[in-house]
Amino acid sequence: MSGAALYIKDDFKVSDTQIEILIGILNIYSLIGSLAAGRTSDWIGRRYTIVLAGAIFFAGALLMGFATNYAFLMGGRFVAGVGVGYALMIAPVYTAELSPASTRGFLTSFPEVFINGGILLGYVSNYGFSKLPLHLGWRMMLGIGAIPSVLLAVGVLAMPESPRWLVMQGRLADAKKVLDKTSDSKEESMLRLADIKEAAGIPEDCNDDVVQVPKINRGEGVWKELLVRPTPAVRHIIVAAVGIHFFQQASGIDAVVLYSPRIFEKAGIASSDKKLLATVAVGFVKTIFILVATFLLDKIGRRPLLLSSVAGMIASLATLAISLTVIDQSHKKMIWAIGLAISTVLSYVAFFSIGMGPITWVYSSEILPLKLRAQGASIGVMVNRVTSGVVSMTFLSLSKAITIGGSFFLYASIASVAWVFFYTCLPETQGKTLEEMGALFGNFRWLRDSKREKRRNKANEINGDGASNVQLGPVSNGN
Q: Which domain of life is it from (predicted)?
């Protein structure tokens, strides 16, 4: 849409306000999909929910491609938005539930990897289709999205169903088959099945192929347990999940991704061709660094990557704000400031993609308890989409009100608050099974307590075993 918007404005003769509504409204529409996806996925399964999302994407892309006026285009945007809501909620949940703990971070980051791959392909196709006549080019940019939606719907049919969803339906034999295929060993498969059965309220010694699952663990009363009477652990989990989704979008990523042609125009790039080529560079950098992140998530953990990522985003946003302010206030072309602005846009998306981008989806999908996961994930996606919609629907107006440099100073300030929140509220989840997550949450003084525990354990090692017996290898889990 970032490239198509340039040509839609000329073709339909619409205002900047109409353009920012068109771009941002998809995120508001996606609320319908994200709220419905939790109940839908508990009803028909995770896999068929993805098929449904693909069908909705297909219809939305065709409607936008054949739009004859602004109202028709908004209708297509509505349908596509519902599909976005479904996909953003179900993809990380499905992947997290299918993956073994050893590679869950790597695999759960895949939805974000391919979102970035899609953004890059979108930028490239924008550049290619920009050579077509005005009335045809932007329609191809939007309509071509129907092709990957068909591949998604057909491809997922070859995948197994989530073992956790199968257990919630009482289908233990089917769940065991899936776990045997997706675990690192038979022992791990048996352990995962035992943990899931316990979470679903099924007795450990119950090994029938099909069993009756207690109704309370099949979705009833979930919203009450999430929002009305949450336990301390669930309350902490919801705060963490909602917080990470809010700050992911409030720090301005959609302003950069959706309005990068406008930002490059403010930075001094005049021709449409060069602006679209510069956006291709943004998509390329995002895709490369998200790939790097997938290999680091299960090696160095969520917290170090997330905190380093947000620190880099803060520095990039502040520098971008300064450079754009200098360009705005200067009466002559400042080559160094233009170069700095373009470089910091690229560094910002790089830092976002190596941490904040994928970890938001990995972390929020893995910390929720089994019976609360679908609806809890939908709350996170809802907050994500509302915040994204507000950012994308107000960026042009905000830039006019406080200047484009002032807008990025604001995003840098929000990212600074995000760093403090992540440092104090989000414990490390690397290597934990989904059923072990509850033990990490519920104590908002966990950071102080974990530091005290580490100091105590280190002192015990030194004082108890003597200098010759000090442990030189890695400290065991929990220390």
A: Eukaryota
Distance CA 45, CA 38 (A): 10
Distance between CA atoms of residues 377 and 49, nearest Å:
14
Joined tokens for residue 108: 């759960």
Residue 49, pLDDT > 90, answer yes
Asked if 398 contacts 266 with a C-beta cutoff of 8 angstroms, the reply is: no
The answer to whether the beta carbons of residues 128 and 2 sit under 8 Å apart is: no
Which of helix, strand or coil describes residue 210?
Answer: strand
Listed residue (370, 357, 364, 104) closest to 238, CA to CA? 364
Beta bridge partners of 210: 171
Q: What whole-number distance in Å separates Cα of residue 167 and Cα of residue 95?
A: 16
Neighbours of 9 (CB within 10 A): 16
> Cβ–Cβ contacts within 10 Å for residue 8, how many?
25
Q: What confidence score (pLDDT) does residue 453 get?
A: 59
**Nearest to 405, CA basis, from 343, 352, 341, 347:** 341
Write out pLDDT tens, residues 123-149: 888 888 888 888 888 999 999 989 999
Write the DSSP symbol of residue 436: G
Q: At CA 85, angle to CA 234 and CA 355, rounded to 5?
A: 65
Instruction: Give me the DSSP letters along 17-74.
Output: HHHHHHHHHHHHHHHHHHHHHHHHHHHH-HHHHHHHHHHHHHHHHHHHHT--SHHHHH
What is the SS3 assignment for 324? Answer: helix
Give tens-digit pLDDT for 389-420. 899 888 888 998 999 999 999 999 999 999 99
